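Worked Example 4.2. Read the sequence first, then its C-alpha cells.
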Amino acid sequence: MAPLTPESPGLAALRAGFADPPRAAAPMMRWWWFGPDITTEGVERDLTAMAEAGLGGAEIAFVYPMRVLEEEAPFLSPRFLAALDHAVRFGAALGLRMDLTLGSGWSFGGPHVTDDLAARTLVWERRLLPPGAHRVPVSPTFPGDVVVGGYLTPLEGPAEPVHLPVVDGHLDVPDTPGPRQLLLATTRRTGQNVKRAAAGAEGPVLDHYDAEAVRTHLRAVGDVLLDAVDASLLGAVFCDSLEVYDANWTPALPAEFAARRGYALVPRLAELVVDTPGSDSFRADVHRTLTELYEEHFVDVVCAWADDRGVAFRLQGYGVPPASVSSYRDVAMIEGEGWGWRELTSAKWASSAAHERGTPVVSAEAWTWVNSPSFRATPLDLAGEAHEHLLAGVNHVVGHGWPHSPADAPGLGWIFYASGALDDRNAWWPAAPALWRYLARLGWLLRQGEPVREVTLFVPGHDVYAQLAPELDLFRAVRRHVGVALTAALRTAGHDYVLVDDAVLDAAPRPRPVIVVAGTTDARAESWLAEQAAVGSRVLRAAEVVADPDLVGDPDVGIEGGEGDVGAVHRRIDGVDVWFVANTAPRERRVRVRPRDAAPGLERWDAHTGRVSATWETPFADLALAPYEAAVLVGSSAPATRLTLADWTLRAGVHGPAARERPVTLPHVWEDDPELARFCGSVTYTATVALDAAPARAELDFGSSAPSDGAFAGDSGLPSFRAAVEPPVGAVVQVRVNGTDCGVLWAPPFRLDIAPALRAGVNELTLVVSSTSAHALADDTHLGEAVAAVARRYGCRFVLQDLDQADAAVRSGLLATPTLRLS
C-alpha cells in the first residue's frame, strides 16, 4: 500500500465524496407504466416525487393494463410516444437518469415476431418398435414443426444410437435384434408469449440465437422508442433477465455447429438424451454453441445497435439462453439480481464479470420480492437487502420498484403484482431521503478504486455444459456445480472471490494469488491450471477448501466472532483501503475486524451522516453491530498526530467560585483542590492550540473510562444500579472552540470531532465542566432537621436511604489530560 499522509488529496477527496455523493450514485427505481396508461400530470408528479426524495433515476418499464382504457393508446402509439418523450425530458431536467426497457414485459418479442423468428425448442418422442424392418411415416404434429431425424436405440444395454434421416416423409428402420425404441427429434416453436405485455405489445418471444430476429425487434421497437426521445438524455437501454423458456434450438444450429465444432450435429443428436461414452463431450459442444450464438447474434447485435444509436446497453445476462459470466464481455452496463452474500447469486455473477472487465460500476435489481406483499417493506428491509448486494460486489441498485398510480385510482391505487411498491404512498416516506442518501454514500464509495478479491474461483465450462440439459440455465448449473458449501466457506473465512469461466483459458497466464477449482475433468483446463501454478498461482481444489478454508491463507479481512453473519468487501483507492462490513443477522453481533493490510490506524465512516464516527490507533476495530447494521472502515498508512493538551487555565467569573484566573495542572480533581473541594456546579477551563493548517479531522479525546465496581447495597440492602466505569470527566463537559459550541459529552467514549470549528493559527478551547450535586446533598443539614421534625409529628414513616454514601468516592473535574488527534 502506498504511503499516505493525513492531508492526502486521495483521502480528502474520498471524505468529500462520501459526505456529499452525486445523485448518480443513488438508487434508481423501475418505474412501471401500466397499460400504457399515463398522463402528463402523472409523469410529472411521479418524477418530481422521485427527485425530491433523492433517487437517482427511473428505468421505465411498460407492462400490463390495470384498467380498461376508454381511449385506447396502445404500446408505441403516438400518444404513448409523446408521454415517453415528455417523461425523458422532464426527468432529465430534474437531474434524474432515465433508462428505457427495449420492449414491453419480458422477454423481448411482440406482434412483429413472425413464426420463423420465434423462439424454438427441440422435443423428443419415444416409440417402441416390433422386430423387423419398417418404413415409419413421420409428419409434423403442429404447424411449424420440423422433424430433424430419428434415432434407433436398444431398450436394454449400452449402444450408440443409429441415426435415421427423414426421406420423403418417412424413416427406414433396419432389422436389428432385441427390443428397440425409436427416438424422434422435432423442433417447434416454444409457444412462449411476452410475459406481462402492455396493450398492443402481445406476441411471441423472439429467437435470441437468430440475429435477424433480434434486428427485427430493434427495428420494430427499439428504433421507434429512440426516434421518439432525445437519446442524449438517456442513461441506458435495458434488457431484463433472460427467461426464454426451453429455447434450445434455432434453424441455423446444425450449420453453425458444424462450422464451430468441426463435425455434424444431427447424426449425434440423440446423445443429448442417451448416454454414450462420448455423450458428455457432445453435450458440452452443443450447449457451448448455443452460448456463442446468444453472444454473437443477440448481445453483440444489440450492443452494435446501441452504439449506433448513441446509448449504453444495460443487461441482466443470466438465464436462458445459456449466458456465461464472460458473455458480458462487450456490454456497457453490467447488472445482476438476487441477494445472499454467502452463495453464488446472479449479483455475484455480474460483479465477477465487471471485475474481470475492469468495469467500475455494476448494478443489481434489488427488492424484487421484498417483504411481500406490497407496502409491507420498511426502510430496514430495504437497507438490509441492499447490504447483501454490496457484499456481493454490487455498487448500484435499481429498485423494484415504483408503480405509477393515477390520482383517480380507487383505494390505495395501482401496484405491481410482485412485491414492493416503493413510492411516496408509503407511510414511512419521510425517511426516504435519508435512506437513499445512505445507500448513495455506500454505492459511491464502493465504486472508487479497485476491488480486492484474491481468490479466483474457476468453473470449467466443459464440465458444466455437459450437465446442462434439460434446464439450459447456465448460471443455475454453475451454482449447483460450485455448491453453497464452497462459497460460504470462502466468504465466512474472510475471503472474497471472482468467478471466472473458460474464457481465461484463451488468455496468457498471469499470477493470481489463489485459484480454487470447482471440479474438472477437462484436460485443457488442467493444462491452464499447471501454467498458472508455474507463474506463481496457488491452485487448490474445492473439496479441500470446504474441508479446511485455512488452506487459502490469511484472510483479506479477518472477522473474529459474528457466527458467520458478518461479511466484508474491500476496495483499494489511491493508497487508501476501504472495507465495507455488514451484519446480516437479526441480532447484534460483536466482532473484531482485522484487515490483513490495515494501516496503524482505522476510522469508521458513518453512511447515515457522511462523517467519521470513531477511530482506532490499532490495526483492528472492535465493532458491536446492531441487527442489519453496516460499517465503513478506512485506513491509511500514516498515523495521526496526537497533541497532549496540558496547559490549562481555570477561568473566574462566569462559572465557579474562583476569584481569579489561575493555571491548573491536569488531571484536576476538584476534591483535591482546596477552593473547589465541596463545590457543585460548573467550572470553565481554557487552553490554546496553534495549528499550521485546519485539519480534515480533529478528535478531542478526554481519555478512557476504567472499569470500577458497579451495583452496591446501601442501607436498604437493595442493589442500586451504578455505571461500572470511572470516566475521565466528572461528570459532564461542554466543548466550545473559538466560540462555537461543538457538543456535550456525558458518556463513553468521551471523544468529539471539533475539526469544523478549528482554523489555521491560534485556536481557543473552552471546556465547561459540570459536576453532580453529591457534595451539596451531603452538606445539606436541613434535610436531617426536616426529617426529624416530621418524625416527631407523624412518626417515622421513611428513612432517607444511603445519605452516608451521598458523596462517597465522588471525583469531579477534568480527571485526565485531553489529547487532540489530528488527521
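Now turn to a second chain, presented in exactly the same format:
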Amino acid sequence: METVYFTEFQTVNSEKDWISEDKCCCSLSSQNILAVSRQYAQVKKKSVGELSVQYEVGLFDLDRPWEWYQVMVSSSVITCLEWDKMGNRLLIADADGKCQIWQMQASTVICDFLLNRWTCHSSSTLEDEEILAVAWFHNGVQVTFNPEKCGTILYNDKFQRGQFVPSLTKFGGKPVDGWIAVTASGLVCAGVVCTQEPYIEVANQTLSQSYQRLSLVSIAHTGKGEMVVAASDGQISTAIHCYKVSLSLQNGVLQISCKPSASFFAKSQVDYAANDSQRMGITQLYFLNQESSETVLVSCGSHGYSSLEIWQLLDHNMPVNSKLCQYGQVPDTVYHMPKWMHKATIQHSSYLTSIATPRLPLTKTMTDSGFSPYIATAYRDGTLKLIHRHTYQVMQSGVMDTFYNPSVGASPTKKPRKSVNISNLVQTMSGCGLVAVHDGKISVLKVFNVKDGGMMMSASYVCLLLEYILVAGQDWWDILLAVKPGNIESICMKLLDNFYKQPAPMQDLILMRLSALRVAMYSMSTSTHQKAADYHTRLVLQAIHSVFRALLRPKAVTTQDKSPAEKVTMLCQKSTDGDLENLLVNLEVEEFLIDPRRKDKKGSGEALQSLQPLIQWVADFSLHLLASIPLYQSYSTFPGASLLSNSSVLNTLRELLVIIRIWGVISPASLPVFATTSNVDCLAHLFKVMTKAWLCSSNKEGNKLEYDEALLDECCVLPSKVLVPSVSQDFRLNSTGYSVFTQHTPVSFVFGEQPEYLYHRKKSKMHYVSDVLIENGQHHDIVRQIHLGAQLKRGLGSV
C-alpha cells in the first residue's frame, strides 16, 4: 500500500471553536466520482450565542482531485449517501427523514451530464424519523468476475451474467427504478421513481409488528429479488435481527412485505456482556456487499479494543421424526433451516473506525489464484488491515503514518499529528484503490489485490480487469493504479489482440470504449503523451465518421443494393487518381439526403447546417495533417505523426471529404469555411493531396514511410494557400486527464486550487516554430467542436 495523493479543504474564516464528532458520509460511484458530506458552522447575529450549522454534500473526480463541486446544502445532518449503478444519480438521506434524488443536470444548450450542475429530481419526507441506511433497487443485471478465466478468449465466456432477479418488476418482467430506506424506529420506506408527476411514489411498512430503536442497519440484495435488512440497537447483549423485505405492485400500488429471518448474537457477547468495565458495544454492521446477503461483518468494541466478527448464512440440516412428520409417500427426514455460522474473528487493540467492503461481484467458488480480493479495516491508532475475502486471513497490515507524510504541503506553523485517524474508508470498484477520509483530508491509496504487498498485480490480471470494465461499462481510473509504466504498450497490444478475436457485434459494442481506454493508458506516462493526443484525435474522428455514416440512409431498403455509405467506401477504395469530381459522377445526390422521405431539400439543409461545426473540424484536421507531412522526415514526435502512417485514418478522411462535398450541394451553408489567398477549390485540393498521402501509407514497406517529392512540395506550399487552424483544436495537447500518474507520489492538492505542475506543463509544452501550427488563446469544446471564447467562466469548466 502507498499513498497516491491527498487533498485537503481550504480553511474557511468562520467562528468555530468547537469540535464535532459527527461522522461524515461518502460514496464512490462506478465512474470513480466520490461524494462526501461535510459540515461547517457560522455564527448568526440574530441573538447572542446562536449557532447555525449547515451540512454540505460535494463531490470530485478521482482523476481531478483539485476540483470540488457542490451538490446541495442542508441544515440537517446527512446520514446516507448512495450512488445508483450507472453513477449518474445520488441518493441523499438526512437525520430528519428526508430522502432526495439528485441527478446531473442535462442541458441541450451546454452539454449533458456536467459534474458542476445538479438538480433535485424528487424527494420524500418521513416526519421525525432518522434514516440509517438506503439502497437502490436492483435492476437484475450482474456481470460476475472470475479470475480463473484469465486465459479465456471470448468475453461472453469470461464474464457471465449472474442469476439475479430485479427487486421490483412491472408487467413483462421490466425492472422498476426506485430506492429503499430504513429508519431508526424500524420503519421501511420504499420509493418508486416515475418519469411524470408525481416523480416519486412512496410506501411505508415496519420491519416487525412494533416499532424498534435501532442504531445500525445494513441492506443487501438476494438473487431471488428480495432484500435482507440486518439491524442492531448497538448493545452487545441483544441479538442482531435480520428481515427479508420484498416489493410488489398490486393494481399499480406499491406494497412492502417484511418477514423475520435468521438472527444471531455476536460472539463477543459471551465474553464481554457481563463485564461492565469494558463497555463493549456493536459499532459497525455491514454486509459483505450489496449483492452478497450471505456474509455479515460485525464489529464489537470499546475505547481500546475491537473485535471484527465474520458471520456466514448457511443451510443447517435438522433431522425430523419420520413417523410424526410425513408428507406424502416419501418422508423427508431432513429439515433445511437457515442459520448464521461464525467464520472468523479479527482482534485489535484499538477502536475500529471504518470498514471498506469489496464491490467487485466475484464467483462464490474461487481457488487460490494470484488475484486476492480483500476487506479493508481502519482503526483509531492509524492501523490499516487487509483481510482476504474468502479465507478471512490478514494479508497486509500497516500504519497509515507510513503511507501518508503529513509534512508534505503542510504549513510550517502546524505541528504534525501523531497518528492519522481515518473516519471513513471505501474501496474502488476493482479494489485497486482505497479512498480514506481523515483529519479534514481525503487520501487515495494504491492497493494491489495480491497476498504479497510488495508485489504488483500481474499484467494478465490487469488485462482481465480492464476487459471486465469494458464489458460492464464502468470507469477504469482505479485499475490504472496497478499498471506499471513499462507495461503500458504490452497491455495495450494484448487488449487489441483479444479485441480482434471477438465477434463483430461485440467489437462494435466496445470499439469506442477501447479507443478511450488506450488514450487513458498512454496518458499515464510523459513519454507517451504525444501518442495519447493522436489516439484521442482518432477517437474523435471515429465518432464523427460513425455519425455521418449513420445519417446516410437509402431511399429503398433492399438486400441487393448497397447503402450510400457502402458506395462511398467502395468508390474511395477504387479511386486512386485523386479527382473528386470524377468520383462524384457515380453517386446520386438524392441518396445523401438526411431525411429521404421528404422530396424537398429544405429539411435536410437545416439538419446539415447544424452539423457544420463537425464538418469544419474534419476540414481543419485534414489541413493540419497534410501540412505536417514535411515534418515527418525530420521529427518523429509531433501532433499527428502516428496518424500519417495509418492508411485507415487517411481513407476515413477521404470518405468524409466526399460526403461533405455532396452535402454542400444540398446545403451550401454546411460547407467548411477556408481562409485562402487564391481561388483554389479547397475541398478538391484536399482530397487530391490526401489521396497521394493515402497511397504512400498503403505502399509503405514495414514501418518505413517515405513520401515522393511532388507530395512534399504540395504540402510545403499548402500553408501559403490556406490558413491552417490552431493545433489545440485538433489535438488535446493541454489535457489534464490522468496527470496524477505522471507525478512523484504522494502528491498534495487543495480543493479549488489548480496544482502548480499543470502550469509548468503548459509552459514547457513544445511549440513548433513553423507556419503550420498557430496557437491562440481560445478555449475549444471538444464534443461540439466550437469555440467557447478566450475567458471561460467557472460554470462551464467541465465542458
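Notes for the reader: Residues 527-722 form one domain. The longest strand covers residues 305-319.
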